[in-house]
Amino acid sequence: MFFLKLSLLSLLIAAPGLVTSTENVITCDGNVQRLNCDIGLISVQSAVYGRTDGSVCSAGLPPSQIQNTSCILNIPLIFERCDGKIACEFKTDTIGSPDPCVGTYKYYNTTYNCIQARTSVTCEGSLSTLDCGSDVIQIISANYGRTDGAICSNGQPSSLTENTDCYDNDTLTSVIAGCNETSSCILEASNDIFTDPCVGTYKYLAVSYFCEPTQTSVTCEGSTAVLTCEVGLLKIHSANYGRTDSTTCSSDRPLDQITKTDCFAATSLSEVATRCNDGSNCTVPATNTVFTDPCVGTYKYLSIVYSCVVNDFLSLFLFDLSTEGDTNR
User: Measuring CA to CA, which residue among 219, 229, 234 is closest to residue 284?
Assistant: First the structure.
């Protein structure tokens, strides 16, 4: 199941132009592992603890401590702590990983991508707006808590900012529900919204996201719309079978067939969404048979605004990941 989740996350970073680099870090147990993106934000692809190679981290060790190369444990906590950050570091012997092979000297092996993304930080008690213009929001990571002593600290006593190990595991699910697939959304950094993960600490809401470009398909009456996603799955944002201007699909049409520009089929969005949402491709005939005729005598067209979503899986992925992380702690 874990590797299925990894393959779904890989779909996210397969979007053209999103990945700036791919990095791998191997850290011998007991040392500090650091992940860093010169350009973009961290998106962890795999994070494992154990030993799969006899030569890695083997200097000065007896054969009995390096001969087991079938030792591997997935570490969801690294995803949780590092995704969406520019840099992330931790001392490996302090994150509480269970021992997958007692008597074997182990190491942490983490592979991550640096992805182009935006960040938003909102101090507790404030509101902020994510805005993608004509595109739609795709959330990568979100946490309401505190992981840095300097952020949102101005004028605050040190006792309210010294806890930098504060995470609310439900933040991502909540932010995705409110923002994904919208062009803009308002976020409030408040205990009333997210619950309080660390009483007595002044918190902030940190969100990383990118703007997924939307595409528009226009199909004249009598023809068939064909929507295809090379990467990701279809998500329909709006649709109308009718006419809202006099120039689209107007070639060789008499004036009386294109003058009515307030023509809307009530079932347009639901019909297209049913046929297309969550598929890699779909076809929709632009006909009265499919949508009924919203304006008899007017030559119509089907207009669809959609995107190819590559991280609809992310909410389930990271929700399950955080649940596994709770089990491993």
Answer: 219
Enclosing H/E stretch for 48: strand 41-51
CA distance linking residue 42 with residue 19, whole number of Å:
10
Hey, what long-range contacts does 320-325 have (CB within 8 A, 24 or more apart)? 320/1, 320/5, 321/5, 321/76, 321/79, 321/80, 322/76, 322/80, 322/169, 322/172, 323/169, 324/2, 324/74, 324/76, 325/76, 325/77, 325/79, 325/80, 325/169
Helix (H) or strand (E) holding 290: helix 288-291
What are the residues facing 22 on neighbouring strands? Answer: 113
DSSP, res 327:
H
Integer Cα distance of 153 and 159 in angstroms:
11
**Contact of 322 with 76, CB cutoff 8 Å:** yes
* Radius of gyration for the alpha carbons in the chain, expressed in angstroms and rounded: 25
Cα–Cα dist 146/127, whole Å: 17
Query: Which DSSP category does 213 fall into?
Result: P
- Each residue's pLDDT expressed in tens, for the chain with a length of 329 residues: 333 233 334 444 445 467 888 999 999 999 999 999 988 889 899 999 999 999 999 999 999 999 999 999 999 989 888 988 889 999 998 888 899 999 999 999 999 999 888 899 999 999 999 999 989 898 888 999 999 999 999 999 999 999 999 999 899 999 999 998 889 999 999 999 999 999 999 999 999 998 888 999 999 999 999 999 988 899 999 999 999 999 999 999 999 999 999 999 999 999 999 999 999 999 999 999 999 999 999 999 999 999 987 654 443 343 344 344 444 43
What residues contact residue 193 under an 8 Å CB cut-off, 6+ apart? 144, 174
